[in-house]
Each structure stands twice: as structure tokens, then as C-alpha cells.
Amino acid sequence: MEAAKNDPPPLPTKHSILPKYKHTLAIHSKARPSCLSHDRETTPSFIGFRNLMVLVLIAGNLRLVVENYMKYGVLIGFSPGSFRPGDVRLGLLCYLMVPGHLFIAYLVELAAAAQARQAQAMQKKTDESKPVKLRVQWRLIAFAHALNATLCLSVTSAAVYWDIDHPLIGTLCELHAVIVWLKLLSYAFTNRDLRDSYLENHPVPEIYQSCPYPENITVNNLTYFWWAPTLVYQPVYPRSEKFRMSFFLKRFGEMIGLSVAIWFLTQQYAVPTLRNSLTAIDRLNLAHILERLMKLSTISTVVWLCGFFAVFQSGLNALAEVMRFGDREFYSDWWNSASLGGYWRMWNRPVYQFMKRHIYAPLRGRGWRHGPASTMVFLFSAVLHEMLVGLPTKNIIGVAFAGMMAQLPLIAVTLPLEKMHGTSASTVGNMIFWTSFCLVGQPFAALCYFFAYSLRN
Amino acid sequence: MEAAKNDPPPLPTKHSILPKYKHTLAIHSKARPSCLSHDRETTPSFIGFRNLMVLVLIAGNLRLVVENYMKYGVLIGFSPGSFRPGDVRLGLLCYLMVPGHLFIAYLVELAAAAQARQAQAMQKKTDESKPVKLRVQWRLIAFAHALNATLCLSVTSAAVYWDIDHPLIGTLCELHAVIVWLKLLSYAFTNRDLRDSYLENHPVPEIYQSCPYPENITVNNLTYFWWAPTLVYQPVYPRSEKFRMSFFLKRFGEMIGLSVAIWFLTQQYAVPTLRNSLTAIDRLNLAHILERLMKLSTISTVVWLCGFFAVFQSGLNALAEVMRFGDREFYSDWWNSASLGGYWRMWNRPVYQFMKRHIYAPLRGRGWRHGPASTMVFLFSAVLHEMLVGLPTKNIIGVAFAGMMAQLPLIAVTLPLEKMHGTSASTVGNMIFWTSFCLVGQPFAALCYFFAYSLRN
């Protein structure tokens, strides 16, 4: 308790029988409302409560860490035998199959390019439009691409479902197969339309002019696309000036650190919570299931955020640095999104860009309205999500599919909130997003698949 | 996933062998860093994470509510027999003693005022300075006040310590006694100096001029001070224009609601946590004590905030409305304080104002430096805190005293942070305040007194 700077107490004197300081200072000299009263014209800052919130979150979860330690001790242990050798071998085989499919796609495009060159030479001579023969050949090319891509995805999927036991290896294989499958589709679609433009002398985007069709049909060009952090094929990409080793090492270090953190968090906190929930689900004890869901929601949100950062910030930036890939917009600030629609547009830009370029926009181009075109996109995405989760865990129970399809009504509900542009509307929308996605959706899905997986094992 | 508004896909045509939409759109057209990269010039907003934090806090604590319910059911039950009739009778007696002490103080001042009037009349005639006789009489007056005030506090304290069993009744009695004691001191000091000014023709603050000394020595004036929401005596206070019934009812309703909430939270959440901690303290199991402390910290912070609002916003504003007391600055925005010093200046303005006017400023007036004067203030406050907690629980274990004295080093440590005026410095200071005060200090003190209280019972 220190005196305000503006009224220093008077110095003592010896002349009075009492020191000069008087206890008569008028402390209450004017009427004024309390700081939190509505009578006040200004609202005080509440920044201190934000700090308190952070601290209570830390204290509350630190307590759970101590409780977990007292209950379970350290659950982490590294046993190299936890992966079956057969799984590792088959996983590697699936991985090595991929260049084969890419090479086939390259050969198909090479043949198509040769035909296109021939056709253009003919056109110049005879000045006639594309012959019927070419149209038939193009259908053959499309069929060859479709067969190749489908084989790429289905062989891996079958192997993952029937032969790979470990869910982690299975998920990695399936994820890789899906990514390459999408890349093959993008490669085929883009080159078809580049060929079309080439024959019809349509203009192509300016950035492609340094490598006009069919010069882009080379093994090098396709290999770059294979490793580039994008699902959308372009003959030419914006490139960064040079490879920065320190940037790469930092991103790579982050990725390793976060992966270890995720592994630790999952083993030490998520697995016991999931295990303890099995009895609750078995007995359909609703209060207990709810309690488990809420306990899981914090850890699943933390793991999710770590995973997002590890993949989209650290991983893709590290890869992009190696590839000198210039466009690093792998995500934008989805955490502020005021609607589910905004979230899906922002969090995973590579997939969003693929969907927009190769599914949504073509459908719109064929005259579809926004609603059905969006529904198609989410249907496609829902099937892929179910494959990614259901195949490695051998539980095609449709929860991931349903979760993706449930986005459509949620997007419709939060769309008005996004359009209102007010702070409180966007706060409400943002909270709906976090609650539906991180606090309910993901832990619920995790519980479902864990329960189904445990029933099988 | 919706197309950006600025590139509507072209409409389909029948003239080409393919629809006009081309899959060749350049998605990656320029190099740009990721949203969270340091390469970016602007930092994105993180407001969404604040929302997430709120939701995780809610979910985490809702889970604890469910867990608590599954473990204990509903612990609340109202038994009117929980207060001993003897306690209630004695508590009421202590309460009713107070007007007696106030009346004695009034009589003492009445005598002093009569003398002062006489002396002034003499002075006017003889024009001499205050005689020695007056000085002796003033010492008598001071002695009478001291005796009266000391009796007021000590009789109640003794009754609370030896005869009142229930800690709640004891705390209320002791709190009331301390408040009236402080008011008696302020009344005596202020009137002494008003008298001094009256005799020496010193000017007094402007606001007092509507009721100059000795006109303020009336039963009405003292009764108003008794009920006014302040510890600092002034002959005249700023008044609000009129009593607003709706304002009063709202504040009163808030106070009742919050009191019920505090009672519920304490019974349902704090008491089981405290009970469970007894074994941990008994065995000196450090990890377990820490876990209990952290579990307690959330509930104690919530109870503390509810209590603060109930007393300082709702209670004192309701009382002030009834008394038409104008100066409602019972607190300012202490939750943002960047230092412990700031907190103690802001959270409890009535006590701060008393300390400043009647202890700190007079000591400074006598030539004390800031450090020793502050130390005196905290020493005084520490003794009162120990009395308020130690006497009703019959455990004068010195933890409240030590807690108050520990503020001095904490204030010294956080003072530089407050003076830096930077955002991060004040955030650090604010976090030190919350941690030391709400997350560690209070739950620790609660644990200590609960443990000591349980040992005795």
C-alpha cells in the first residue's frame, strides 16, 4: 500500500503540538460508480482474466499430469518388437510400388503427347478440327489413367485391410496411397486440358509459359510433382530462391520434437483414458461416457494441435524448403474461423485446392449449383476419411464418413454467423467450430474406433 | 469447400469436345510464406485460441463436476441444527455490543468538542496559544478512545476464540468487530485533527464545509458512518442523488445468489478435496499434497472471485445505495495489476484508504521512509488477517500473518515489472500475482487452516 504519487504527505514540523500531517484528508471527495457497474461509461480491460485462464488451465492440467503419474507411473517404453516384421516389409513394398504407378502415368502421357504433336502437325497441314479418331484415343488414355490410379489405391488398400496388422503402419501406407492417387488424378486431368489448350491454341496461365505443353511431360517434371507439397499438378510452380539449411533444420527439428510429444501424450494420457472408457461404453453408462469424452477432449485437442503444427507448419515447410517450393500457404488462420465452412477452406489448403480445382469448379462448370457441388466434395472427402481411418483399424463403421457428412449441416448453420461480421457472431461461430470439431467430434470418433478396434482384438 | 467469389467458373458450352472449364488453373501462382512462419511480415490473430481456452476450461471443469457427482452424489443438505444455539446467541450479543462502543466514542467526542468550544472562546478573549491543561485533557481523550476501541475488539475476539464454536459465526463476529474497531480509530483520529484545525483556524477540505467541526459530533452523523461502506471517517461524504430501488434489488439479488453459489461450491467441491488431502498431509506425501493443492486452486480461485464480486461489487453497492453513499470506488481493476503492490492498492479500496490515511501517511509525515512505513502497514494488516482467520478456527498458526508479510518481498520483486510499462512485463507481473495469490497462496493457507482445524476436532 503506497501513497499515490500526486499527494506526497507534508514534512513534519516541531512547531505544532502534533505533527503537521492531518488525519482529515477527504478520501471520498466525489461521487463515482464502481469499476464494474453499468453506470460507468468505460468498460475496464479484462486482460488479467485471460492470464488467469491460462494459469488455471496449466494448473488444472498439471494436476492431471501428477494424478496420472501417481496412478500409472511412466507408461512409455520402447519395444522394437511392437512392429511385426511382415508389416514393415509389406509397408515398404506398398511404398516402393508408387514410383511404378507414376512411371506408368508418365508413359501414358508420353503417348498422348506424341499423338497430340502429330495431330497438331496434321491440323497445320489440313486445317481441320480434331478428328473422331483422336476423341476415341483420348478415351483410351483416360481409361489407362483411371486403371493405373485405381490399381495404385486399391492394391494398397487391400494390403492394409487384410495383411498389415499394425494400425500406424497401415495408416501411413494408406495415407501415402491416397496422396499419390490424388496426384495421379490431378496429373491426368491437368495434362488432358493442357493438351486440349495446345491443340485449340487456348491461352494457358502465364506461369506455365516457361514450360509449355508437351515439354512438361518428362520424368523430372513428374518426380518434382511427386515430392512437391501439393496435390495439384502444374507444369511450373513458383520456386523459392535458394535452399536455406537452417530453416530446414529448424522445421525438421520441430517435426521430430512434436512427433515425440504426440507419441508420449498418446501413450501416457490418451491410451489409459481410452482403455478406462471401454467398460463405460460396454455398460452404456451415459454419465461415465460423457466424463470420458470430456477427459479425452483436452488431450485430443492438444494432440490435434501438435499434429497440425507438425505436419502443416513444420513438415510441409521442411519439405518445401528441400524442394524449393515457393507457395507455402499450406493453411491460413483457421483457428479464428467463424464457421465450419471457413475452417474447411482454411485448415488444409492442399486438399482444399485439389477439391476446388478438380471437383467443385468442374461441377460448377457443368452447371451444377453450389449446394450439390459442395455435397459431392464432402461425399468424396468422407469416403477418403473413412478409408484412412477404417481400413488400417479394420473397422469400416462409417463414423468418419458420417462425421464428414455432418459438416454440411454444421456449415449451413454457421454460415449466417460468418456473414454477420460482428465480433460476438464470429465468437459464437468460432466456439461452435471448436466444440463440434475438437471437443466433441474428434474424441467421439476416437472413442468409437478404439472401442471397435478393441472388440476385434 | 466453396470457390472463392472472385473466380466464378465459366459456363459449359456444347461446341468443344470437352466442357469449357479447364483443370489448368494456376493454384500456386506466387511464392508466399506460411501463416505462422517468421518470414511473414504480419502476425495472424490468435483470438480463436482464446475461445478454445475458454471451452477447454469449461469442458475440463465440467468433467470434474461429473466425476465429483459420480463419486459423491449431492453433498448439500440443509440442517438447521448445524449452528449451536449458544453460538447464535453469543454472536448476536457481540453484534449488539457495537452500538454501545460507538455511543461511548460519541460521548468522548462530545466532551472534547465542549472543551474545544470553551478553549476557542478563551482564545478569542486572551489570544494565547493552546494551554498545557488542554494538552493533558487531549491525552485523556485519546486514552478513553483507545480503551473503548480496544475493549470493542478484545471482548469480541475473546468470545470468538473461547466461546463460539462455529467458524462461520465466529468469522462474521470477528470481521464485524475489526471493522467497527477500524471505524472507531478513524473517528477518533479524524476528530482530533478536525479539532486541532478548528482551534488553529487551519483550513479543512472543501467538502467538509457544509458541516464544520464541532457540528459533526452528533449521533446521526456517527450512525451514518457506522453504516456507510467506508472505514474512513469524514464529517461529510459525497452522496448519490436518490435511492434507486431497482439498483438495490439487483445488487442484493446478486449477493444472495453468489452467497448460495459459494456455499454450494464449498460444500460440494472444496470440502471433499480438503478432506481427501488430510491423509496426504499426514504422510507428508509431497506429490499428493501438490496434486491436492492444484485441485484446490481452481475451486478456491472461483470461490474467491465470487466472494470478491459478492462483497465488493454487489454487497457494498447495495449498502451504498441504501445509504446514498456517492463514492462507489470500492475496488479498481485489480485483475489487471502488473505487480503485487498494484493489487494491494486496488482490490480493497476501503482498507487501503484507511491504511493510507491513518497509518502510512502519518508515518511518512513523521519522517519515516517509504519502506518502513509500508512494512508497518503490512504488519498491522498481517495481525488483523491472523486474527480474522486464526481466532474463529482456534488456530493461531501464523500462516495468514506470514502470508501477508510475504507480500513485501513479492511487491519488491514485481515492482520493476510494473515500472517497465511493457505488455509482456505487465503480463509476467500479472501472472506472478495470480500464481502467488490465487493459485498457491490461498489454497495453501486454506489447506493449513483446515488441517490444523481438523487436528483439533
From TrEMBL, chains A, B:
The chain crosses the membrane at residues 52-70, 90-114, 140-162, 168-189, 248-266, 302-320, 397-417, 429-452. Sterol O-acyltransferase that catalyzes the formation of stery esters. It is found in: Endoplasmic reticulum membrane. It comes from Drechslerella stenobrocha 248. Keywords: Acyltransferase, Endoplasmic reticulum, Membrane, Transferase, Transmembrane, Transmembrane helix. GO terms for molecular function: diacylglycerol O-acyltransferase activity. Belongs to the membrane-bound acyltransferase family. Sterol o-acyltransferase subfamily. Pathway: Lipid metabolism. This is O-acyltransferase. The active site is at residue 385. PANTHER family: DIACYLGLYCEROL O-ACYLTRANSFERASE 1, STEROL O-ACYLTRANSFERASE. It holds the Pfam family MBOAT. It comes from the Eukaryota. Its main location: endoplasmic reticulum. GO terms for cellular component: endoplasmic reticulum membrane. It is a multi-pass membrane protein. GO terms for biological process: triglyceride biosynthetic process.
